Amino acid sequence: MKFIDLSACVVIFSQLVSTSSPEIDAEDAKLYFEELAIKYGHPARKYEVITEDGYILALYNLPGSKEIPVLLMHGVFGTSDIWMLRGNISLPIALANSGYDVWVGNSRGNRYSRRHLYLDPDHDPAFWSFSFHEMGVYDLSAIIDTVIQKTGVKRINTIGHSLGTTLFFVLGSIRPEYNARINVFTALAPICYLNHIQPLSSTIAKFVPVLGKILNKLNMYEVFDEPTRSIVGQFCTLPNVGYKICVEEVLFTFIGSDPEEISPEFAKIVLPHFPSSSSLKNVIHLAQLHNRKVFAQYDYGFLRNRNVYNSSVPPEYNLKKVTMPVALTVGRNDKLSVVEDVQTLRRKLPNVVSYEESPRQEFNHLDDIWGAHMDIYLYPYIFKILEQYSEF
Length: 392
Known about the structure:
The protein has 392 residues and is an alpha/beta fold. 39% of the residues lie in helices and 13% in strands.
Protein backbone atom coordinates (compact mmCIF):
# COMPACT_ATOMS: atom_id res chain seq x y z
CA MET A 1 0.00 0.00 0.00
CA LYS A 2 1.40 3.41 -1.00
CA PHE A 3 1.14 6.50 1.19
CA ILE A 4 2.02 10.05 0.25
CA ASP A 5 4.12 12.38 2.39
CA LEU A 6 1.99 15.48 2.91
CA SER A 7 4.37 17.43 5.12
CA ALA A 8 5.01 19.81 2.24
CA CYS A 9 1.30 20.63 2.14
CA VAL A 10 1.33 21.78 5.76
CA VAL A 11 4.46 23.86 5.23
CA ILE A 12 3.02 25.55 2.16
CA PHE A 13 -0.31 26.06 3.88
CA SER A 14 1.39 28.03 6.65
CA GLN A 15 2.14 30.68 4.04
CA LEU A 16 -1.57 31.17 3.31
CA VAL A 17 -2.01 34.08 5.68
CA SER A 18 0.46 36.14 3.69
CA THR A 19 -0.96 35.24 0.29
CA SER A 20 -3.31 37.66 -1.42
CA SER A 21 -6.59 36.47 -2.91
CA PRO A 22 -6.64 35.79 -6.66
CA GLU A 23 -8.20 38.38 -8.89
CA ILE A 24 -11.87 37.90 -9.77
CA ASP A 25 -12.97 38.75 -13.29
CA ALA A 26 -16.70 39.55 -13.41
CA GLU A 27 -16.75 38.61 -17.09
CA ASP A 28 -16.44 34.92 -16.13
CA ALA A 29 -20.02 34.94 -14.88
CA LYS A 30 -21.13 35.19 -18.52
CA LEU A 31 -18.64 32.72 -20.00
CA TYR A 32 -19.11 28.97 -20.33
CA PHE A 33 -16.68 26.10 -20.57
CA GLU A 34 -15.27 26.56 -24.05
CA GLU A 35 -15.07 30.35 -23.65
CA LEU A 36 -13.36 30.03 -20.27
CA ALA A 37 -10.91 27.48 -21.68
CA ILE A 38 -9.95 29.87 -24.48
CA LYS A 39 -9.65 32.82 -22.10
CA TYR A 40 -7.27 30.96 -19.80
CA GLY A 41 -5.03 29.64 -22.54
CA HIS A 42 -6.23 26.12 -23.29
CA PRO A 43 -8.84 25.92 -26.07
CA ALA A 44 -11.03 22.88 -25.55
CA ARG A 45 -12.06 20.08 -27.84
CA LYS A 46 -15.67 18.96 -27.41
CA TYR A 47 -16.83 15.37 -27.82
CA GLU A 48 -20.32 13.87 -27.70
CA VAL A 49 -20.54 10.70 -25.66
CA ILE A 50 -23.58 8.44 -26.16
CA THR A 51 -24.36 6.10 -23.29
CA GLU A 52 -25.73 2.56 -23.57
CA ASP A 53 -29.17 3.88 -22.62
CA GLY A 54 -29.17 6.75 -25.11
CA TYR A 55 -28.11 9.86 -23.18
CA ILE A 56 -25.88 12.33 -25.03
CA LEU A 57 -23.17 13.78 -22.81
CA ALA A 58 -20.70 16.62 -23.42
CA LEU A 59 -17.06 15.80 -22.74
CA TYR A 60 -14.31 18.42 -22.97
CA ASN A 61 -10.58 17.97 -23.51
CA LEU A 62 -7.77 20.42 -22.80
CA PRO A 63 -4.97 18.71 -24.76
CA GLY A 64 -1.65 18.11 -23.05
CA SER A 65 1.60 16.25 -23.60
CA LYS A 66 1.76 13.99 -20.54
CA GLU A 67 1.13 10.34 -21.26
CA ILE A 68 -1.61 9.58 -18.74
CA PRO A 69 -4.84 11.60 -19.19
CA VAL A 70 -6.66 13.07 -16.19
CA LEU A 71 -10.47 12.92 -16.05
CA LEU A 72 -12.47 15.26 -13.78
CA MET A 73 -16.09 14.58 -12.75
CA HIS A 74 -18.30 17.23 -11.12
CA GLY A 75 -20.67 16.94 -8.15
CA VAL A 76 -24.43 17.24 -7.72
CA PHE A 77 -26.12 20.12 -9.59
CA GLY A 78 -22.79 20.82 -11.24
CA THR A 79 -21.41 20.90 -14.76
CA SER A 80 -17.94 20.96 -16.27
CA ASP A 81 -18.08 24.74 -15.64
CA ILE A 82 -17.75 24.42 -11.90
CA TRP A 83 -14.11 23.35 -12.27
CA MET A 84 -13.26 26.50 -14.28
CA LEU A 85 -14.61 29.39 -12.22
CA ARG A 86 -11.36 30.33 -10.46
CA GLY A 87 -9.69 31.28 -13.72
CA ASN A 88 -5.95 30.69 -13.74
CA ILE A 89 -5.99 28.70 -10.49
CA SER A 90 -8.88 26.47 -11.60
CA LEU A 91 -7.87 22.81 -11.42
CA PRO A 92 -8.23 22.03 -15.15
CA ILE A 93 -6.14 25.10 -16.03
CA ALA A 94 -3.53 24.32 -13.38
CA LEU A 95 -3.26 20.75 -14.66
CA ALA A 96 -3.11 21.88 -18.29
CA ASN A 97 -0.44 24.44 -17.42
CA SER A 98 1.62 21.54 -16.05
CA GLY A 99 1.28 19.59 -19.28
CA TYR A 100 -1.50 17.19 -18.33
CA ASP A 101 -4.01 16.00 -20.93
CA VAL A 102 -7.19 17.08 -19.13
CA TRP A 103 -10.69 15.72 -19.72
CA VAL A 104 -13.77 17.16 -18.02
CA GLY A 105 -17.04 15.22 -18.03
CA ASN A 106 -20.72 16.07 -17.67
CA SER A 107 -23.34 13.77 -16.16
CA ARG A 108 -26.82 13.31 -17.63
CA GLY A 109 -29.43 15.98 -17.05
CA ASN A 110 -27.19 19.01 -16.59
CA ARG A 111 -26.93 21.99 -18.94
CA TYR A 112 -24.43 20.24 -21.21
CA SER A 113 -26.01 16.78 -21.15
CA ARG A 114 -29.72 17.48 -21.32
CA ARG A 115 -30.13 15.41 -24.48
CA HIS A 116 -31.15 11.89 -25.46
CA LEU A 117 -31.40 9.91 -28.68
CA TYR A 118 -35.13 9.36 -28.28
CA LEU A 119 -36.42 11.10 -25.13
CA ASP A 120 -37.32 14.79 -24.81
CA PRO A 121 -36.38 16.17 -21.36
CA ASP A 122 -39.21 18.70 -21.57
CA HIS A 123 -41.95 16.20 -22.37
CA ASP A 124 -40.82 12.67 -21.47
CA PRO A 125 -40.71 11.85 -17.74
CA ALA A 126 -38.64 8.77 -18.60
CA PHE A 127 -35.71 11.08 -19.39
CA TRP A 128 -35.50 11.95 -15.67
CA SER A 129 -35.78 8.39 -14.41
CA PHE A 130 -32.19 8.23 -13.20
CA SER A 131 -30.07 8.77 -10.11
CA PHE A 132 -26.36 8.63 -9.42
CA HIS A 133 -26.59 4.86 -10.04
CA GLU A 134 -27.18 5.34 -13.77
CA MET A 135 -24.64 8.18 -13.84
CA GLY A 136 -22.02 5.79 -12.53
CA VAL A 137 -22.95 2.63 -14.43
CA TYR A 138 -23.66 4.27 -17.80
CA ASP A 139 -22.33 7.85 -17.92
CA LEU A 140 -18.97 7.32 -16.27
CA SER A 141 -18.26 4.07 -18.09
CA ALA A 142 -19.00 5.69 -21.46
CA ILE A 143 -16.84 8.72 -20.62
CA ILE A 144 -13.91 6.55 -19.52
CA ASP A 145 -14.22 4.44 -22.66
CA THR A 146 -14.19 7.59 -24.81
CA VAL A 147 -11.08 9.00 -23.15
CA ILE A 148 -9.26 5.69 -23.53
CA GLN A 149 -10.38 5.32 -27.15
CA LYS A 150 -9.36 8.87 -28.09
CA THR A 151 -5.99 8.74 -26.33
CA GLY A 152 -4.98 5.13 -26.95
CA VAL A 153 -3.99 4.51 -23.33
CA LYS A 154 -5.04 1.54 -21.20
CA ARG A 155 -5.59 3.40 -17.92
CA ILE A 156 -6.36 6.98 -16.91
CA ASN A 157 -6.00 9.09 -13.78
CA THR A 158 -9.26 10.37 -12.34
CA ILE A 159 -10.46 13.08 -9.94
CA GLY A 160 -13.99 13.46 -8.64
CA HIS A 161 -15.68 15.94 -6.35
CA SER A 162 -18.67 15.19 -4.11
CA LEU A 163 -21.25 13.19 -6.11
CA GLY A 164 -18.60 12.91 -8.82
CA THR A 165 -16.77 10.56 -6.43
CA THR A 166 -19.90 8.50 -5.85
CA LEU A 167 -20.01 7.60 -9.53
CA PHE A 168 -16.61 5.91 -9.30
CA PHE A 169 -17.62 3.86 -6.27
CA VAL A 170 -20.83 2.80 -8.03
CA LEU A 171 -19.00 1.90 -11.24
CA GLY A 172 -16.21 0.03 -9.47
CA SER A 173 -18.79 -1.97 -7.54
CA ILE A 174 -21.29 -2.77 -10.30
CA ARG A 175 -18.85 -3.06 -13.22
CA PRO A 176 -15.59 -4.08 -11.52
CA GLU A 177 -13.77 -4.52 -14.83
CA TYR A 178 -13.46 -0.71 -14.89
CA ASN A 179 -11.17 -0.75 -11.87
CA ALA A 180 -8.36 -1.88 -14.15
CA ARG A 181 -8.88 1.16 -16.38
CA ILE A 182 -8.18 3.63 -13.57
CA ASN A 183 -4.57 4.31 -12.65
CA VAL A 184 -5.48 6.26 -9.50
CA PHE A 185 -8.66 7.96 -8.30
CA THR A 186 -8.47 11.12 -6.18
CA ALA A 187 -11.73 11.59 -4.29
CA LEU A 188 -12.31 15.17 -3.14
CA ALA A 189 -15.03 15.46 -0.47
CA PRO A 190 -16.25 11.90 -1.20
CA ILE A 191 -19.93 11.01 -0.83
CA CYS A 192 -21.03 7.48 0.00
CA TYR A 193 -22.23 7.55 3.57
CA LEU A 194 -24.37 10.44 4.79
CA ASN A 195 -24.94 9.11 8.31
CA HIS A 196 -23.54 12.16 10.10
CA ILE A 197 -24.85 15.07 8.05
CA GLN A 198 -26.32 17.82 10.21
CA PRO A 199 -29.44 19.95 10.10
CA LEU A 200 -30.54 21.50 7.71
CA SER A 201 -29.45 18.64 5.43
CA SER A 202 -30.59 15.83 7.73
CA THR A 203 -33.98 17.48 8.28
CA ILE A 204 -34.62 17.91 4.57
CA ALA A 205 -33.50 14.34 3.85
CA LYS A 206 -36.26 13.02 6.10
CA PHE A 207 -38.93 14.95 4.18
CA VAL A 208 -37.61 14.32 0.66
CA PRO A 209 -39.34 10.93 0.12
CA VAL A 210 -42.76 12.39 0.93
CA LEU A 211 -42.09 15.53 -1.08
CA GLY A 212 -40.89 13.39 -3.96
CA LYS A 213 -44.19 11.51 -4.14
CA ILE A 214 -46.10 14.79 -4.21
CA LEU A 215 -43.93 16.25 -6.97
CA ASN A 216 -44.16 13.07 -9.04
CA LYS A 217 -47.96 13.28 -8.89
CA LEU A 218 -47.62 16.85 -10.15
CA ASN A 219 -45.47 15.57 -13.04
CA MET A 220 -42.39 17.39 -11.74
CA TYR A 221 -39.28 15.30 -12.30
CA GLU A 222 -36.54 17.88 -12.91
CA VAL A 223 -34.81 19.79 -10.12
CA PHE A 224 -33.49 23.28 -10.89
CA ASP A 225 -35.03 23.58 -14.32
CA GLU A 226 -34.48 26.75 -16.35
CA PRO A 227 -37.23 28.91 -14.76
CA THR A 228 -36.09 27.91 -11.27
CA ARG A 229 -32.43 28.63 -12.04
CA SER A 230 -33.32 32.08 -13.37
CA ILE A 231 -35.30 32.96 -10.24
CA VAL A 232 -32.52 31.71 -7.96
CA GLY A 233 -29.89 33.59 -9.96
CA GLN A 234 -31.79 36.87 -9.93
CA PHE A 235 -32.54 36.72 -6.23
CA CYS A 236 -29.11 35.56 -5.11
CA THR A 237 -27.32 38.33 -7.01
CA LEU A 238 -29.30 41.11 -5.34
CA PRO A 239 -26.91 43.58 -3.66
CA ASN A 240 -26.18 42.77 -0.01
CA VAL A 241 -29.13 40.48 0.73
CA GLY A 242 -28.41 38.01 -2.09
CA TYR A 243 -25.08 36.78 -0.71
CA LYS A 244 -26.21 36.96 2.89
CA ILE A 245 -29.32 34.83 2.34
CA CYS A 246 -28.27 32.49 -0.47
CA VAL A 247 -24.68 31.87 0.57
CA GLU A 248 -24.24 32.69 4.25
CA GLU A 249 -27.65 31.53 5.47
CA VAL A 250 -28.43 28.70 3.03
CA LEU A 251 -25.36 27.37 1.20
CA PHE A 252 -22.98 27.59 4.17
CA THR A 253 -25.58 25.86 6.35
CA PHE A 254 -25.38 22.87 4.00
CA ILE A 255 -21.66 22.80 3.25
CA GLY A 256 -19.89 24.57 6.14
CA SER A 257 -19.07 28.26 6.40
CA ASP A 258 -15.92 29.67 4.80
CA PRO A 259 -16.47 33.27 3.63
CA GLU A 260 -12.71 33.86 3.31
CA GLU A 261 -12.53 31.34 0.46
CA ILE A 262 -15.96 31.97 -1.12
CA SER A 263 -16.52 35.71 -1.05
CA PRO A 264 -19.49 37.83 -2.20
CA GLU A 265 -17.53 38.87 -5.29
CA PHE A 266 -16.83 35.28 -6.25
CA ALA A 267 -20.42 34.19 -5.57
CA LYS A 268 -21.50 36.47 -8.41
CA ILE A 269 -19.28 34.40 -10.74
CA VAL A 270 -20.72 31.12 -9.46
CA LEU A 271 -24.45 31.75 -9.53
CA PRO A 272 -24.95 31.84 -13.33
CA HIS A 273 -23.28 28.41 -13.47
CA PHE A 274 -24.65 26.72 -10.35
CA PRO A 275 -26.95 25.01 -9.61
CA SER A 276 -27.65 23.18 -12.84
CA SER A 277 -30.48 20.73 -13.41
CA SER A 278 -30.69 17.14 -12.25
CA SER A 279 -33.42 14.61 -11.54
CA LEU A 280 -35.73 14.45 -8.56
CA LYS A 281 -34.94 10.73 -8.40
CA ASN A 282 -31.28 11.59 -7.82
CA VAL A 283 -32.17 13.81 -4.87
CA ILE A 284 -34.42 11.10 -3.43
CA HIS A 285 -31.64 8.51 -3.77
CA LEU A 286 -29.24 10.77 -1.89
CA ALA A 287 -31.82 11.25 0.87
CA GLN A 288 -32.18 7.48 1.10
CA LEU A 289 -28.47 7.15 1.87
CA HIS A 290 -29.01 9.21 5.00
CA ASN A 291 -32.37 7.82 5.99
CA ARG A 292 -31.38 4.15 5.55
CA LYS A 293 -27.77 4.63 6.76
CA VAL A 294 -26.40 2.40 3.99
CA PHE A 295 -24.69 2.95 0.65
CA ALA A 296 -27.22 1.06 -1.43
CA GLN A 297 -29.11 1.11 -4.70
CA TYR A 298 -32.37 3.01 -5.15
CA ASP A 299 -35.23 1.96 -2.88
CA TYR A 300 -38.42 1.65 -4.94
CA GLY A 301 -40.48 0.25 -2.11
CA PHE A 302 -41.22 -3.34 -1.10
CA LEU A 303 -43.17 -4.56 -4.13
CA ARG A 304 -41.10 -2.99 -6.89
CA ASN A 305 -37.87 -3.89 -5.10
CA ARG A 306 -38.94 -7.52 -5.41
CA ASN A 307 -39.35 -7.08 -9.17
CA VAL A 308 -36.16 -5.09 -9.72
CA TYR A 309 -33.76 -6.72 -7.25
CA ASN A 310 -35.56 -9.97 -6.33
CA SER A 311 -35.33 -8.70 -2.76
CA SER A 312 -37.53 -6.60 -0.50
CA VAL A 313 -34.63 -4.19 0.13
CA PRO A 314 -32.19 -2.77 -2.43
CA PRO A 315 -28.70 -4.30 -2.41
CA GLU A 316 -25.76 -2.42 -0.93
CA TYR A 317 -22.92 -1.47 -3.23
CA ASN A 318 -20.06 -3.89 -2.58
CA LEU A 319 -17.13 -1.57 -1.96
CA LYS A 320 -14.75 -4.52 -1.66
CA LYS A 321 -14.98 -4.74 -5.44
CA VAL A 322 -13.68 -1.16 -5.80
CA THR A 323 -10.05 -2.19 -6.20
CA MET A 324 -8.78 0.92 -8.01
CA PRO A 325 -6.17 2.88 -5.99
CA VAL A 326 -8.09 5.60 -4.10
CA ALA A 327 -6.79 8.78 -2.45
CA LEU A 328 -9.29 10.41 -0.08
CA THR A 329 -9.30 14.00 1.11
CA VAL A 330 -11.88 15.62 3.40
CA GLY A 331 -12.38 18.91 5.24
CA ARG A 332 -13.05 19.07 8.97
CA ASN A 333 -15.63 21.80 8.34
CA ASP A 334 -17.40 19.84 5.58
CA LYS A 335 -21.02 19.28 6.60
CA LEU A 336 -21.87 16.95 3.70
CA SER A 337 -18.77 14.81 3.33
CA VAL A 338 -18.35 14.46 7.08
CA VAL A 339 -15.06 13.14 8.47
CA GLU A 340 -16.75 10.26 10.33
CA ASP A 341 -18.52 9.13 7.16
CA VAL A 342 -15.36 9.34 5.06
CA GLN A 343 -13.53 7.27 7.66
CA THR A 344 -16.25 4.63 7.30
CA LEU A 345 -15.70 4.68 3.54
CA ARG A 346 -11.96 4.41 4.11
CA ARG A 347 -12.38 1.26 6.20
CA LYS A 348 -14.58 -0.39 3.58
CA LEU A 349 -12.40 0.31 0.53
CA PRO A 350 -9.68 -2.29 -0.09
CA ASN A 351 -7.10 -0.05 -1.78
CA VAL A 352 -6.88 3.37 -0.11
CA VAL A 353 -3.40 4.66 -0.94
CA SER A 354 -3.72 8.03 0.80
CA TYR A 355 -6.02 9.76 3.26
CA GLU A 356 -5.87 13.43 4.25
CA GLU A 357 -7.93 15.70 6.44
CA SER A 358 -7.21 19.21 5.17
CA PRO A 359 -4.82 21.21 7.36
CA ARG A 360 -7.16 24.17 6.91
CA GLN A 361 -9.72 24.06 9.75
CA GLU A 362 -12.37 26.03 7.81
CA PHE A 363 -12.16 23.73 4.76
CA ASN A 364 -15.75 23.10 3.61
CA HIS A 365 -17.46 21.04 0.91
CA LEU A 366 -16.77 23.44 -1.97
CA ASP A 367 -13.27 24.66 -1.13
CA ASP A 368 -11.96 21.77 -3.29
CA ILE A 369 -13.28 23.47 -6.43
CA TRP A 370 -13.90 27.12 -5.49
CA GLY A 371 -11.50 28.00 -2.70
CA ALA A 372 -9.59 31.22 -3.28
CA HIS A 373 -6.35 29.54 -2.14
CA MET A 374 -6.94 25.92 -3.14
CA ASP A 375 -3.75 26.07 -5.21
CA ILE A 376 -1.91 26.41 -1.90
CA TYR A 377 -3.76 24.13 0.51
CA LEU A 378 -5.04 21.44 -1.91
CA TYR A 379 -3.11 21.26 -5.16
CA PRO A 380 0.17 20.03 -3.62
CA TYR A 381 -1.77 16.96 -2.47
CA ILE A 382 -3.37 16.37 -5.88
CA PHE A 383 -0.12 16.84 -7.80
CA LYS A 384 1.80 14.51 -5.47
CA ILE A 385 -0.72 11.78 -6.15
CA LEU A 386 -0.57 12.31 -9.91
CA GLU A 387 3.22 12.37 -9.87
CA GLN A 388 3.41 9.19 -7.81
CA TYR A 389 1.14 7.45 -10.32
CA SER A 390 2.78 8.97 -13.37
CA GLU A 391 3.79 5.57 -14.76
CA PHE A 392 1.56 2.67 -15.77
